[in-house]
Amino acid sequence: MPLPDDAELVAATRSVLAAPVDLVVVTTGVGFRGWLEAAEAWDLPLREHLEGARVIARGPKARGAIRGAGLVDAWSPPSESSAEVLQYLLSGAAGPLAGRRVTVQLHGDPLPDLVSGLVSAGAEVVRVPVYRWVPPEDTGPLRRLVDAVAAGGVDAVTFTSAPAAGSLLQVATKAGVRDDVLRALRCSVVPFAVGPVTAGLLTAAGVTAVQPARARLGALAREVVARLPERDPVVDCGRHRVQVRGHAVVLDGNLVELPPGSIAVLRALARRPGTVLSRADLLTELSGGQDGHAVEVAVARLRAALGAPVVSTVVKRGYRLAT
What we know:
The chain is an alpha/beta fold. It is 44% helix and 17% strand.
């Protein structure tokens, strides 16, 4: 939520204008542009005031906003992280910090490590909260996603901001399924994060997220396309080739959607091709405390949907993929 009329933003802007600024840390492009636009609407000469400062861009989007405003960016970290910005400033590369006035444009996060690090080095820090993150009015879609992740009903989840990752975990906690969500993200559901900042909360929760080499949405999408097929191998079943994909199966190049019970059975068999799994083994893959007949129903539906002899019955023992 932008804060163009927020009293806190007005006060922070007036504080910035009260004295010359030595350093400006711009963390997001949308936030910096919004701040300049708000100041212009209030008839405050913010852009002109910042012309004499050394401007640090946290990433390329921030750099683009700086240049779009007619200002000059002095440096940007390869990692696009606030931690590297702090390391750079503490190293003295931008000059000594003691006694200098530093403006930090926030991005919905108070950035306590960055701010406290600058203050400890003797800098006077003016924090500028340009926008804040709030939950959506309708949390239904997010709750459905949380439930799907907890149940292993999706193959992957993409995270494009740290607050989004934090919000999902908060909703999972309120719903009482946080442990299930974390277990799924560590095992059956692949988490993708657009960059290290977004992945930070997941890492702190013990979840290792796949990240693209460059923190861009296009690169994130390509990473998903490249990594997901590795999740389930292609299995040869007699004259047929099978690969399980979420709620569907690729049979000889054709995508066939399956009901939950059938896909659960097929996934279990595909994990151990050629191995006979008993009805009791397969029953553990089905949800809802069902009996042995549920396995027979799931297998029957599976065979009907595939229309190919992929699953074989081993008399008095169970089922296996055809060889």
